[in-house]
Write a structure and sequence with these properties.
By secondary structure, this protein is mainly alpha-helical. The protein has three domains: 100 residues, no CATH class; 79 residues, Non-ribosomal Peptide Synthetase Peptidyl Carrier Protein, Chain A (Orthogonal Bundle), CATH 1.10.1200; 54 residues. The chain has a two-stranded parallel ribbon with strand order 1-2. It is flat, with a radius of gyration of 22 Å. It starts with 22 loop residues before the first strand and ends in a 5-residue tail after the last strand.
């Protein structure tokens, strides 16, 4: 049981940084996610001015808060929506898992929910209970490795066959490789029901509540018509971690930003 289950979340997100982690490279797709989450429009000129994470914080606060042109009510006097979402997630989980609410806290693991069928059923129940969009579950690592090995092995076998078998011409090789790749693509929907593991960023209740906040911000905002500035920073950090190109570590306000793709 957690002694202070609903303490204010820390804005910093991730493991401690190392000396070479002064720059965070993110996929440019994050711009679309920011626009979706905060219901704002960011043009290339705006994005070009995001030199650091703090610049991004400031831009979102300006364009969404009372000082800017948006409709969001953001100030330090507002209760934390992140805390409210965490509390709601704990209560919903206790109900779904039929556990004592006092035993479900921010650090509680969401990885041990019984069999794979129970995990998927509980995930659907939680989504229905909270009436929010939950992050997608992940396939087991062994399954991903198996499928990757099968596809790669099929491609390799096709190439070797084209070398060793005289009748195995170029068209046959191309068809064999295409078949292996199509098999890999078909495996994604076919194995969707086997996705039962939480992602590395939401293996605990607190991590899950942060993902819920980022993916359902307009809907959750409507429940209390206000945001604390730390709520905005936390959502920005969640999205930055989601779109980072490598494992950067802790995201700090002074961390420099770099976008992987060209923004038009």
């Amino acid at each position: 049981m957690d002694t202070n289950p609903y303490a204010s979340p820390q804005v910093a997100y991730g493991a401690l940084p190392t000396a070479d982690e002064s720059r965070l490279t993110v996929d440019a797709g994050i711009v679309v996610e920011l626009e979706r989450a905060f219901q704002v429009d960011a043009n290339p000129h705006d994005v070009a001015e995001w030199a650091t994470v703090n610049d991004l914080y400031a831009w979102v606060l300006q364009h969404c808060g009372q000082a800017g042109e948006g409709r969001w009510r953001i100030d330090d006097a507002q209760p934390s929506l992140a805390q409210a979402t965490l509390r709601r997630t704990c209560e919903a989980l206790a109900l779904v898992l039929q556990q004592d609410p006092q035993q479900v806290g921010p650090s509680s693991s969401i990885t041990n929910w019984g069999s794979w069928r129970q995990k998927r059923q509980n995930w659907k129940k939680l989504e229905s209970t909270m009436q929010v969009k939950l992050p997608p579950l992940y396939r087991p690592k062994w399954l991903v490795r198996l499928l990757t090995t099968l596809v790669a092995g099929g491609v390799a076998a096709s190439i070797w066959a084209s070398i060793l078998v005289p009748t195995f011409d170029g068209w046959t090789l191309a068809a064999a490789i295409a078949g292996c790749l199509l098999l890999g693509l078909a495996a994604a929907p076919l194995t969707k029901s086997l996705a039962i593991n939480p992602g590395p960023d939401f293996e605990t209740v607190e991590g899950l509540s942060r993902q819920i906040l980022a993916d359902n911000l307009p809907q959750l905002y409507a429940t209390q018509r206000g945001l604390a500035p730390d709520d905005v920073r936390l959502v920005v950090n969640v999205l930055l971690k989601r779109y980072e190109m490598d494992d950067h570590g802790e995201i700090l306000p002074e961390t420099a930003l770099e976008f992987e793709d060209t923004l038009d």
